Amino acid sequence: MNCFHLDDFLAGWIGGASSVIVGHPLDTVKTRLQAGKGYKNTLHCVLQIYRKETIAGFFKGLSFPLASITVYNSVVFGFFNNTQRVISKFRHGDERQSCGMLDMTLASMLTGLMSVGLGAPVDLVKIRLQMQTLPCLAENLDLAGTTGNVNSNIAVRSMTLQGQPTYRGPIHCISSILRTEGIRGLYRGAGAMVLRDVPGYTLYFIPYALFRRWLSPEGRSSPHPCTVWVSGGLAGSISWVTATPADVFLSTGSISWVTATPADVVKSRLQADALHARKYRGIVHCVVQSYKTEGIHVFFRGASVNAVRGFPMSATMFLGYELSLQFFRGL
Question: 248-250 and 253-255 as β-strands: parallel, antiparallel, unpaired?
Answer without folding.
Answer: antiparallel
